[in-house]
Amino acid sequence: MTLSLRFDTPSAADQVWSVGRLNTAIKGLIEGNFPPIWVRGEVLQCKVWSSGHWYFTLREGRSQVRCSMFRLNASRAGKPPADGTEVYVLAKPGLYEEKGEFQLIVSRMLPTSAVGQKQQELERVKALLQQDGLFDPVRKRPVPPYVSTIAVVTSPDGAALKDVATVTRKRWPCARILLVGARVQGEGAVEDLVRALRLVNRIPGLDLCIVGRGGGARQDLAAFNSEAVCRALSNVRVPTISAVGHEIDISLTDLVADHRAATPSAAAELAVANRRDVLRLVDDLSVRLASGLTGRTRLAAARLARSADRLNGGMEWVLDSRRNLTERLAAQLDALSPLRVLGRGYAVPMDDAGRVLKRRADFIKDAGFRLRVADGDVRARVE
Amino acid sequence: MAKPKTELAESTPALADELARLEEIVRKLEADDVELDAALLLFEEGIARLRAARERLIAAEVKVQAVLEEAGGDLRLTDLDA
User: Fold this and answer.
1) Rounded to whole angstroms, how far apart are CA atoms B38 and B24?
2) Are A349 and A380 contacting, i.e. CB atoms less than 8 angstroms apart?
3) CB–CB of B65 and A179 under 8 A?
4) Given this model, what pLDDT does residue A236 score?
5) Rounded Cα distance, A169 and A184, in Å
6) Which residue of B has its CA nearest to A275?
7) Touching check for B64 and chain A: CB below 8 Å?
8) Residue among A149, A284, A201, A170 nearest B15 (CA)
9) Predicted interface score ipTM higher than 0.85
10) Please, which residues 3-32 of chain A have a Cβ atom closer than 8 Å to chain B?
11) What's the rounded Cα separation, in Å, for the pair A42 and A377?
């Protein structure tokens, strides 16, 4: 069987890619699709340039990748690693466009041996805290809706306080920020943080506590993984936000606090409402207040109208019943009337003065008198 | 001289309480079972609270202070520029 191969000749210039266009497109594809990731490997040929940048190869088995670590990050990583050192690197995959070379841009490097020991200690503390229920979701308290006073436990010299103040100033200027200073790294940091967190409990009228620092190397965040600090944090009587390091790092205080924020700025965003939203709520309440009163007044007017109707109806009933009574009484009067008796054939004798003649003595011989009958008078004479 | 500890507390009622009371007033007014006299009183209270809340939201400026513990254990505040 023969394989038919067809090489199409390029038909138009715009279907032919330049190398530059290709490299740019591939770079976009790679760099747009990878967040920073941790990669494990063995360092080979680490070269330190006069600029301070490090260039090395990371190898694992038969695979390898070129790596660049720029001066600022390299200076934080200590000495350049010897060949064969096993490390973790935090890196973003990228493409060196000019050469079309795939590479990792490394921001952090940690020898796996150091991580191993620290990791074991971290796991031990984590297990203890978990056992005591300090990570329990039912312990988590919500952030109060409109905080007035926020305690910030951090270094007086760090960026964290400024970041919290900046965000708060922008979103919720009616808040008061109280710095409770503590060293956050190095010697004495654990003791300082514990003392500061205990002090927080003595501040009256407090709504919220943010504990944290700006980003730092992993070993600089050790105090936030300490058991004592975590326990002190769990005893803070107001809701807490832990803001340690940045997106990549999660410390044990992040797990113990009621809320976790990636940075102090993010903690402030979480902590305070947005004044614009609350002013909108106040406007809404004022509209509802006004229409509430209008509605209530309308209701009262309707009730009043209904009462007037009822009053009119009541009067008519009274008048009707009085009219009925009058008619009934009139009928009774009529029944008792002497005229009705006369109607049955009786007659009433009266003298000329209209006095009724009731006894024999009232009748005088030959005197005239009147007999009242049903339809009038009749003259009569005594014999 | 050390300031008394009470100065650490806010003297005005919490905004959350103000807004919660406002919400309560509005709900009462929206219900049918409040007498007109009472409704007018609620309305007046609501207006006063609305004005106070608005002033508080608009006029406020973030205050940043440091909490310091003195040798005797008392707490005191100092203003910071942050």
Assistant:
1) 14
2) yes
3) yes
4) 97
5) 24
6) B57
7) yes
8) A149
9) no
10) none
11) 150
